[in-house]
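Hi all, posting the design record for the shared folder.

TITLE: backbone redesign
STEP: 1 of 1
STRUCTURE INPUT:
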């Protein structure tokens, strides 16, 4: 590694000099400037920042990009390298220094210019840099640059060097911060299929891996303690609106006095990305604290107009409240609990509260938060630190209870011969039980004397079945399947004593079968009685006319 470095470059003992500065001008045409050690603007950086403003970027974008460019320029000044003559080895050493070296310790602005002996020492009860906070579980600010800071710096420097290359100014030969070698000749995902999702891959060669952040919420009991540690009605109103609306800290500070509509219970803010005006719903408690703050501030002399800012400082001279002042206010409340929550955690808390409501559609939550895509809410589906720890402890408790209370042992399996008979097809053994038969007593007129049933038995005594009773048959309809079976059975039936077929004999009147198969009409000993000249005998249940209309001799059971 040391052989690849330039002569005289010692990265282990290198300390970044505090040369130059990032100046806030207040000019909307050029809100921030990066100055050198002589107080002159750096022309390549100024041109690049103006191009960012022309691309409709936020005014805070030049500030963020300017800090990374100033850090790179300080590194170049320390080793005497021109910005347009930097090569890949310079970029590699710079990113390696940001990864391994400690951040430069800056003196607080209140103690600048003082003797080091007069500067008070740091507090001993504060947690070690980079260690997790005992209240929130979030890591504190460490001594080294965070992966997100290094990734942002690499992206800014790579896009900065792409800018003069695209303009073809001729002052730059190569970009010292290239893409990955497999995509050096084209931009990342140049031939991406729009029907598929983008692969999660690094675009820069020296870009570090950034861990995924899990949003953290403030528990209800801790939020109450933080709220009680605030000093003024203004701070309480701010905290109530941040948790109720889910707006970003900078967005809520842009509200005007006329944007707070108490009747509709909404407050208007300017969105960060689109710079669009949007009304957000809030809770009644937030407007109560806001009214208390307004009455108190108006009595002190704060300007009172609809176009004036809504949030002001608490002391004269009156100035609109900025983000840094609001952050310090919230940090003072955190110090009372020993926590390190940020203003952005209030936005996460509001999002969790809205998503926990089953009657709140996620698409409405997306609109309130100002996200472009609904998939951005997927980060809130991941389990939080407290949920994971609670689930793990509950699992260990269940395992401990299972070990202390083992279930009873199942009975030992026994030999069953019947199961083998069923398995191998043996004859199952059947156990018979003899049940004694009980003959009910006979029902006679004597035993039922005095009852209605006994009177009926005396009037109509039972008769023994006779052997000379004519057989009665019920014939099916012609054409049915039962008709053919009945005809075959009738052909096999022997004739009766009267010479009539059993099929035709059904009452005391006798009729010759007129040559039917199986009849004995020609036998003198069995001649039927003479036919009477009376009216025709109707069928049972019919009438004489009905019997005469039937076709004569069409089948058994018909009368002439």
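Okay, here is what came back for every position:
SEQUENCE:
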């Amino acid at each position: 590694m040391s052989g690849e470095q330039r002569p005289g470059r010692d990265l282990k003992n290198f300390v970044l000099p505090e040369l130059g500065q990032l100046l806030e001008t207040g000019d909307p045409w050029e809100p921030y400037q990066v100055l050198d050690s002589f107080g002159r603007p750096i022309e390549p950086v100024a041109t690049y920042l103006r191009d960012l403003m022309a691309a409709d970027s936020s005014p805070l974008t030049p500030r963020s990009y300017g800090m990374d460019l100033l850090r790179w320029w300080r590194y170049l000044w320390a080793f005497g390298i021109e910005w347009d003559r930097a090569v890949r080895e310079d970029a590699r050493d710079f990113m390696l220094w940001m990864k391994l070296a400690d951040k430069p310790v800056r003196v607080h602005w209140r103690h600048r210019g003082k003797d080091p002996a007069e500067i008070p020492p740091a507090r001993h009860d504060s947690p070690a840099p980079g260690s997790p906070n005992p209240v929130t579980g979030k890591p504190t600010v460490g001594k080294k640059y965070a992966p997100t800071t290094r990734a942002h710096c690499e992206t800014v420097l790579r896009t900065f060097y792409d800018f003069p290359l695209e303009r073809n100014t001729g002052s730059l030969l190569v970009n010292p911060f290239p893409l990955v070698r497999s995509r050096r000749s084209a931009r990342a995902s140049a031939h991406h299929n729009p029907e598929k999702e983008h692969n999660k891959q690094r675009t820069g060669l020296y870009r570090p891996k950034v861990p995924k952040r899990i949003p953290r919420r403030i528990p209800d009991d801790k939020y109450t303690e933080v709220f009680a540690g605030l000093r003024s009605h203004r701070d309480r109103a701010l905290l109530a609106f941040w948790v109720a609306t889910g707006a970003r800290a900078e967005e809520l500070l842009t509200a005007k006095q006329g944007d707070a509509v108490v009747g509709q219970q909404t407050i208007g803010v300017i969105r960060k990305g689109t710079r669009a005006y949007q009304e957000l719903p809030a809770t009644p408690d937030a407007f109560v604290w806001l009214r208390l703050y307004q009455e108190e501030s108006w009595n002190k002399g704060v300007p009172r107009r609809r176009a004036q800012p809504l949030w002001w400082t608490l002391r004269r001279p009156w100035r609109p409240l900025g983000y840094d002042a609001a952050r310090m206010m919230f940090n003072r409340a955190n110090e009372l609990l020993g926590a390190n929550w940020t203003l952005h955690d209030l936005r996460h808390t509001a999002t969790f509260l809205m998503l926990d409501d089953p009657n709140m559609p996620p698409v409405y939550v997306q609109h309130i938060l100002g996200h472009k895509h609904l998939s951005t809410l997927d980060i809130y589906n991941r389990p939080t630190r407290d949920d994971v720890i609670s689930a793990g402890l509950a699992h260990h408790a269940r395992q401990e209870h299972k070990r202390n209370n083992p279930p009873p042992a199942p009975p030992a399996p026994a030999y069953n011969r019947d199961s083998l008979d069923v398995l191998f097809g043996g004859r199952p053994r059947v156990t018979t039980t003899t049940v004694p038969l009980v003959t009910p007593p006979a029902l006679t007129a004597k035993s039922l004397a005095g009852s209605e049933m006994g009177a009926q038995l005396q009037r109509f005594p039972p008769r023994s079945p006779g052997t000379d009773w004519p057989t009665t048959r019920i014939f099916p309809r012609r054409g049915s399947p039962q008709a053919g079976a009945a005809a075959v059975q009738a052909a096999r039936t022997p004739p009766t004593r009267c010479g009539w077929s059993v099929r035709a004999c059904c009452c005391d009147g006798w009729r010759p079968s007129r040559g039917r198969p199986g009849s004995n009409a020609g036998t003198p000993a069995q001649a039927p009685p003479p036919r009477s000249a009376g009216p025709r005998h109707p069928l049972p249940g019919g009438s004489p006319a009905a019997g005469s209309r039937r076709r004569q001799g069409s089948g058994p059971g018909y009368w002439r």
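COMMENT: The longest strand covers residues 21-27.
Let me know if anyone wants the other runs.
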